[in-house]
Amino acid sequence: MSHLVAPSVLAADFANLQRDIELVNNSKADWFHVDIMDGMFVPNISFGFPVVKAIKKHATKPLDVHLMIVDPDRYLKQFAEAGAYSITVHYEACPHLHRTVQAIKELGCKASVAINPHTPVSLLKDIIADLDMILVMSVNPGFGGQKFIEHTYTKLAEVKELAKAANPNLLIEVDGGVDDTNYQALLSAGASVLVAGNSVFSAQDPSLAITTLKQAQV
């Protein structure tokens, strides 16, 4: 299966959001990656349901919604109704993770779990068979434009190995510092979904930046 590319809306120009949504619609991107932050789980606040609904109204590609919030169970239904195709919750934010994952699936969305840079991959072994995707954070979540954490390559390889027997169709997403200097190595390590924010929307030609990430060969 070819890998997927999901430009991160967090790095878009919010004064020209519809323009940037159309840009992604017309590009070789596969998904929109939508980061939701509450100022508590991470030290930043992004946007909520109205903006997700606005993106969904214009987007022609699925919304990959990443919840960086405490107690995400409270809002799963609202994000599903706002247009999420896939919902990612953080391992670190969910004390009853199996129940949360089942709730996401019952809402008709793909279920994904994210792990922060300090969280060991081994903690996912009891949930990996139930997931559609695992998101490996390659920066500490909260802000765009951070420096890529090199240990991410090892973690991607560990997730890939864990998934071999338990869930061979698992998607492995990587988010944070993904650009034209490391995307090939990330795919080689095991990533199958590339989230890219600044490297796309800050590029002189964002559409070309997306094409470059999409055309990578492993």
Give me the secondary-structure topology.
Blueprint: E1 4-7, H1 17-25, E2 32-37, H2 49-58, E3 63-68, H3 76-82, E4 84-90, H4 97-106, E5 110-115, E6 133-137, H5 152-166, E7 171-175, H6 183-189, E8 193-196, H7 198-201, H8 206-214
Parallel strand pairs: 1-8, 2-3, 3-4, 4-5, 5-6, 6-7, 7-8
Describe this structure in words.
The chain is α/β, with parallel strands linked by helices. The protein has an eight-stranded parallel β-sheet. Helix 3 links the parallel strand 3 and strand 4. The chain starts with a strand and ends with a helix. It holds the Pfam family Ribul_P_3_epim. Its EC number is 5.1.3.1. This is Ribulose-phosphate 3-epimerase. Its cofactor is Co(2+); Fe(2+); Mn(2+); Zn(2+).
Beta-strand fraction estimate: 15-25%
Shape: globular
The ordered H/E elements are EHEHEHEHEEHEHEHH
The overall strand count is 8
How would you name the CATH homologous superfamily?
Answer: Aldolase class I
Mean model confidence by pLDDT: 95
Radius of gyration: 16 Å
CATH fold label: TIM Barrel
Which strand order does the major sheet show?
Answer: 1-8-7-6-5-4-3-2
Q: Biggest β-sheet: count, sense, barrel?
A: 8 strands, parallel
| Total domain units | 1
Low-confidence stretches: none
Structural classification: alpha/beta
The helix content is 25-40%
The CATH class:
Alpha Beta
Distance between the amino and carboxyl termini: 11 Å
Q: Counting H and I runs of at least 4 residues, what is the number of helices?
A: 8
